[in-house]
Write a structure and sequence with these properties.
By secondary structure, the chain is mainly α. Helix content is 64%, strand content 0%. The longest helix has 33 residues.
């Protein structure tokens, strides 16, 4: 009986030692709102002592909150960085004449854009990239269909107010934010459909803005 009692005592002790600390919420761990963390650079968020996810995740009971914060950063910040890089690489690949690789990269970017559009209810960037893919794949009918779709998109609620605030800090961006965004670029791809991408994408192929 003594051996049995000792075994039970060891099991209870082991269970106590391995007991999981109660997990707290992001707010309880000081990470709500999370915007202060989402504004950090990838290096600051992941590698800098005293910043980023470690401020939360290294606290006992905040491991789950730290993991949630990392997932949030990956999905909202890193995904945006990667989508942007894919788009810029695609432009350079297309300019160099590698249209299949450029189309593949734009399709990767579409994954992020479609997910973002579900939240923002703004499909303009999705349709613009689909139009660009149609140009790269030499599908004029699809390109013209996307152009019609882009031109018909309703302006999102609050768009003018948001762009006005952005343009006040970035005056040079005014032309690119005229609704629907990038319609002039798609018009250029159609007008210069048989030209190399670098030329078709340039302002020389795009309609002149009204004076």
């Amino acid at each position: 009986m003594k051996h049995v009692a000792l075994a039970l005592a060891l099991l209870v002790s082991a269970g106590t030692a391995n007991a999981q600390a109660p997990q707290k919420s992001l707010a309880e761990c000081g990470a709500d709102p999370a915007n202060q963390y989402l504004r950090l650079s990838p290096k600051e968020f992941d590698q800098t002592i005293g910043m980023g996810w470690r401020v939360i995740g290294d606290r006992e009971g905040c491991e789950q909150a730290g993991a949630d914060l990392i997932a949030m950063y990956r999905d909202e910040v890193l995904a945006q960085y990667i989508a942007g890089l894919n788009g810029h690489e695609a432009q350079l690949r297309a300019s160099a004449g590698d249209l299949p690789k450029a189309a593949e990269l734009y399709r990767r970017k579409l994954i992020f854009l479609k997910a973002f559009a579900e939240e923002s209810q703004d499909l303009s960037d999705v349709v613009y990239v689909e139009a660009t893919i149609a140009y790269l794949e030499r599908d004029r009918a699809a390109l013209e269909a996307r152009r019609a779709q882009l031109a018909a998109l309703p302006k999102p609620d609050g768009y003018d107010e948001l762009t006005a605030r952005y343009v006040s800090d970035n005056p040079k961006a005014a032309a690119s934010l005229v609704w629907p965004r990038n319609l002039n670029v798609v018009d250029g791809l159609i007008a210069c459909f048989d030209k190399p991408y670098r030329e078709a994408y340039s302002a020389a192929c795009q309609p002149k803005p009204p004076q």
